[in-house]
C-alpha cells in the first residue's frame, strides 16, 4: 500500500510537507508547483489517507473557529461583472452576507477552475464555511464540492439536485404565462431565442422546456427553424434573428419569446433594421425585467424576476446551513410577474 514516504520520495520533499498538503494544513506556505506535483503523485500511485489520521484532522477542523468566508462559482464568465441579470443577484448575496458577518471571498468562473490545482485551491485551501453555485452545474461537480464544503447552495441550476438547496423562480410556469399571453394576442407562430438547448450533454434549459410544454398544451407546433440557440450571447441573438428573417421570409413567426431581455433587445434591432414593425409584424417578449427593457422602442414586455431578493434569500439560507440551523436541502421559488408593454400588445 502506498505511503507518505513513497510520495515524498517521488516529489523530493519531506513527509511533513506531504502531510500538510494532503490534510489541507495552511499553517505554512508551500509552493503551488510543489502542491501540484504532490497531488499528481497521489493520483498516480493511488494513495489513500489513513482513516484514523483523517478522523483526527477532521476533528481538528470541527474544533476550529469558522472562517466566516463564502465562495461563489459561476458557470459562465459573463455571469460576473456588470451582467444585467446576475449582478443584482450577486449584490444581494454580498450585501446580505456582510450584514450577517460573513465575507464573499471570491467569485470564480468554472473556466478558471479547469486546472485541478486551481480547483483544489479554490475549494479546499481557502477555508470556506460555505459556497454558492450559479448556473448549469453537473452532479459530479456538485458531489466534489460537497465532499469538501458541506454548506452548498445553488442558484439557477439546470438539474434538480436533491442534495443541494436551490433558490430560483418557477421558470417553466413563467414561460407558460408568456406563451398564454401571446396566444391571447392571436399568435400561433411563435419562435424562441435562448441558450443551452440540449447540446453536448448539457441539460435542456428550463425556459426552453417551458416553452415547448406551453406550446404543446396549446396544440401549437415548435418550428425548429424559429428556434435560435445563442449560447447566451447577444451578438448571436442579433445574427440568428437576421438569418431567420432571411431564410424564412415567406413563413416567419409573428412573435418571438426570448429567454432574457438582452437577447430580446438584440433581436428587436435586427427586425427594425429590416423595416419590420414591432409588434405589428413581429411581437417580442423577454424575461428578467432589466432596467433597459422599459426604455427600448417600443418598450419590451417581460417577466419581472426578483433578482436582488434571490441573492439575499440565498445568503440567508446559506448562513443557516453553515451555523446548523438548517440541515435538510429544500427548493425555494420566489414569485415572478408578467409585465405587458407595447412590444407584445396588439389590442
Report on this structure.
The chain is α/β, with parallel strands linked by helices and 347 residues long. It folds into three domains: 59 residues, 434 Repressor (Amino-terminal Domain); 128 residues, Response regulator (Rossmann fold), CATH 3.40.50; 136 residues, Response regulator (Rossmann fold). The chain is 42% helix and 15% strand. The chain contains twelve helices and twelve strands. Helix 5 links the parallel strand 1 and strand 2. Helix 1 packs across helix 2, helix 1 packs across helix 3 and helix 5 runs parallel beside helix 12. The longest helix is centred in the C-terminal third of the chain and has 16 residues. The chain is elongated, with a radius of gyration of 24 Å. The mean pLDDT is 85.
Spatial strand order of the main sheet:
2-1-3-4-5-11
Q: Which CATH architecture of the largest domain is right?
A: 3-Layer(aba) Sandwich
How large a portion of the residues is in β-strands, by DSSP E?
A: 5-15%
* Helix percentage: 40-55%
CATH homologous superfamily placement of the largest domain: Response regulator
Provide the residue-averaged pLDDT.
85
Order of helices and strands: HHHHEHEHEHEEHEHEHEHEEHEE
Which word captures the global form? elongated
SS field, number of helical segments: 12
CATH class of the largest domain: Alpha Beta
Rg from Cα: 24 Å
CATH-defined fold name of the largest domain? Rossmann fold
What separation lies between the terminal Cα atoms? Answer: 77 Å
Tally of extended strands? 12
Specify the structural class. Answer: alpha/beta
Unreliable residue stretches:
none
Report the sheet with the most strands, covering strand number, pairing sense and barrel closure. 6 strands, parallel
Q: How many domain units?
A: 3
